[in-house]
Amino acid sequence: MNLTDHKKKLYDQLSEIHTLRGIDALLGWDQQVYMPPKASEGRAAQIEYVSLLTHRRFTEPEFIESVDVLAENLDQLSDDDRVNVREVKRALDRQRKLPDDFVAEKARASAIGYDTWVKTRPSSDFEAVKPVLAQIVDIARRETDLVGYTEHPYDALLDAFEPYSKLSAVKPLLTGLAERLRAIIPEIAADFEGIGDPEGAYDESRQYAMGREIASDLGYDFQSGRLDKTAHPFMTTIGRNDVRITTRYFEDNFLPALYGVIHETGHALYELGLPPDRLGTPCGEPVSMGVHESQSRLWENLIGRRCSFMEYLHRVFSKHFPEAAASMDENGLWMHANKVKPDLIRVEADEVTYTQHIVVRMLLEEALVSGSLQVDTLPEAWDDLYETYLGVRSPTLKDGVMQDVHWFSGAIGYFPSYALGNLYNSMMLQTAQKAIPDMDEQIARGDFSQILAWTRKNVHEHGMRFTGPDLIKRITGRDLESDTFAEYVAEKFGVTEPQRR
Amino acid sequence: MNLTDHKKKLYDQLSEIHTLRGIDALLGWDQQVYMPPKASEGRAAQIEYVSLLTHRRFTEPEFIESVDVLAENLDQLSDDDRVNVREVKRALDRQRKLPDDFVAEKARASAIGYDTWVKTRPSSDFEAVKPVLAQIVDIARRETDLVGYTEHPYDALLDAFEPYSKLSAVKPLLTGLAERLRAIIPEIAADFEGIGDPEGAYDESRQYAMGREIASDLGYDFQSGRLDKTAHPFMTTIGRNDVRITTRYFEDNFLPALYGVIHETGHALYELGLPPDRLGTPCGEPVSMGVHESQSRLWENLIGRRCSFMEYLHRVFSKHFPEAAASMDENGLWMHANKVKPDLIRVEADEVTYTQHIVVRMLLEEALVSGSLQVDTLPEAWDDLYETYLGVRSPTLKDGVMQDVHWFSGAIGYFPSYALGNLYNSMMLQTAQKAIPDMDEQIARGDFSQILAWTRKNVHEHGMRFTGPDLIKRITGRDLESDTFAEYVAEKFGVTEPQRR
């Protein structure tokens, strides 16, 4: 086989894997959205079968050989081919280091962990889930040894979600930011004291119509997507021109569904903006979880919670809920949408305190992985860090260490991505604002096309051509930093940071 | 490999194929129910890929060898294994006779035929679709030669839908029945003159609620199924405990949606009644399209349109549409639900004239396949037969020869199954009524459990253990005949057949 044959093998196989991943996404979407309850066992078998097929395609010796040969001849490849070979090889290299037995053991422990967590969380029964969590942590530690690392074992886990990132870079950024935020959160939170949820009754079908209208206005094409209802909001890509989002509804408060929609729309816009002729190859894939989160949180927070957006939002809100809108002006909307309060639950956290939730988890993950913390004392360690960063302790473990599914389902090293999204997007938006000086007028009018075009051109269209750190440098001329986000928060909420006074 | 190994190979492979078919069903269901419009191209590729995988599993040399070895050692197998080997071998033998080139050519022509039909049907442009239809007929003729037959080439096509049936048996049954019906249709239709559609406005969501309630009452478990809305009603099996139905709604008439639901519920009850521990093997599969249709039409017509059902239906109808129900009593419901009228469209035909539509198609298929009729003169031949059997001619070809998708998408030999369903189920119900003497009292009460249990025990639970002809003999002690259906019609509509006068 010559290089052309190897390239053909690479792309044919990636195309098959892409098809299988889309099918897997449909099986998962349906499972969470419309599947009849008694079908769950049969569905699990279908999903497992597709995973197995995908794994087989990805580990086929002929495929691996082609990737290896191409990787040895990078200089003879086009730019895009080089990116694709680099990224496929990176994923393959990781996989090759993990024996089949290990992968199976991890999958089993993750499945049992998830099931156990679902059953034990309502009663905060940490003792019951502790053994499997200890096993998951042990597996994660072994994974770091198998994958290898040059600096810190945690890097081996982080790399699965945030390629080319290291704890030595991420940790100072996030802990440094958390320290600065810690100093100003009380002052910001004081401004929101007495602000409760918006009053009124919000019919679900009207919330749906409003969410749909706003997602459309942001640029989400309902000819290539859908908005459905699930217990937990998510975005999933089922295939070309098929990127779906979901949200959840509370009839006494329209904000969770609305910001769920905006957040998932941000994810969907990224997926729909990837170069269509590169789909299924790294050049047509998102950079990292952190960059993905930068796109969702850009629309949810930086755009969706700014002053000028309230002008637009109030207009749409008045259309769908005229009575409620009559008793809540743009300022009232802003206050409800931006309420800052140090609290227990990450997924309900505001844009300011969110980082603190992540830093707590990152520090605990680091300690668990390096062995300085054991699962036995995790609940206390959790509360101690919450006390430090947010001044709260969880009255029950279900709102404490048991609140997130991640660890219990085997995902350790994922959390930093959420907070890195804020660093990425605050730097991006600062640059975008220079390119679009009248951005706020556009937002107030409900015209988001230039912002979307900017993200398409600067982020989406590149796929994985640039790593996360390279991409932000290319856009802003600077390395990833947290100053921009800290300053954005201080300015938005009108506080002066102590060290800057 | 010994017989045990071959059996393991057989069942492992069938299990994989079953999983793939369920995935294919989900891809198809989603395509028709919820898929965003722009996703159609990507979805087609996903469906094609799953078909290819299924085909590969089914034609894998090791699998074929195992089936062949088992087929040579039937005497050493259990009863169920024998059935499974017999049926898998039958399907394999058919497939082995069709070269890959031929299968690809047929798939291509069918896809083009379908697309062309969709585009040309609205304007009745038969000339535009004629070339591909001629090609499809030519392919069908070649298929009969490739598959082989002992009596009539049409048998080779019929066998794909109605295993073990031959034209020499089916044709006299259906044409004989059609002659008898032809003699009494005018008298029956005269009783319904002046009966139009039910008056009133029928909100879609209330129609949905009514359909759901009735399907539940019939025994359809919504924990293992769903009811959604599509352009054309269908039933599909996505996996164990996942059998879904759809219907379509007209807000000026509740009957099409309602009887669509009951019909598809009948199909779903059959699928859900197949032995769960045999799913994916012939012992857990339906006998034939005709027996499947016997179950849908049993509930739709024999149960759903009988007098005693109107007592139940009127109660449910009054709950969902109290105003409309106040001006329509049980007798009015019966008249609307049973209106007999010789007309043009098969899918809208009543239970009496339905056979005529099928016989027209069967005779045309026979003539096309044997070469005595060419596609050029098909439209006239169609109308001539409609004139003979129903006394109507189509003013436009879209309501004539172009009304059904079947031929244009490559399905020739399918139609008889629809009418055979009526023969099967009228004989079944006659027997069931002897076992359940107070059937009508039960139906009037809305208690369908004994009827369902009877079909489960006598039909569903056997899977393909008996062929269609054997099954009906086993149930009734008689060979499949059309007298029972003809007599049922004459009695129900209170007419005396001329030859019996």
Could you characterize the architecture of this molecule?
The structure is a homodimer of 501-residue chains. With 501 residues, chain A is an all-alpha fold. Among the domains of chain A are: 3-96; 204-338 and 417-468, Neurolysin, domain 3, CATH 1.10.1370.30. Helix content of chain A is 64%, strand content 3%. Chain A contains 21 helices and three strands. The first copy, chain A, has a three-stranded mixed beta sheet. The mean pLDDT of chain A is 96. Chains A and B meet through helix 1 and helix 2 of A and helix 1 and helix 2 of B.
**N- to C-terminal separation of chain A?**
67 Å
Q: In terms of structural class, how would the helical and strand content of chain A be classed?
A: mainly alpha
What is the overall number of helices of chain A?
Answer: 21
Greatest contact pair? A-B, 34 and 34 residues
Quickly give the CATH architecture of the domain at 204-338 and 417-468 in chain A. Answer: Orthogonal Bundle
| CATH topology descriptor of the domain at 204-338 and 417-468 in chain A | Neurolysin, domain 3
Strand residue content of chain A? under 5%
Number of strands of chain A: 3
The residue-averaged pLDDT of chain A reads: 96
Instruction: Give the helices and strands of chain A as they follow along the chain.
Output: HHHHHHHHHEEEHHHHHHHHHHHH
Q: What is the gyration radius of chain A calculated from CA atoms?
A: 23 Å
Helix content of chain A: 55-70%
- Mind summarizing the main beta sheet of chain A? 3 strands, mixed
Uncertain parts of chain A: none
Give the assembly state of these chains: homodimer
| Strand arrangement, major sheet of chain A | 1-3-2
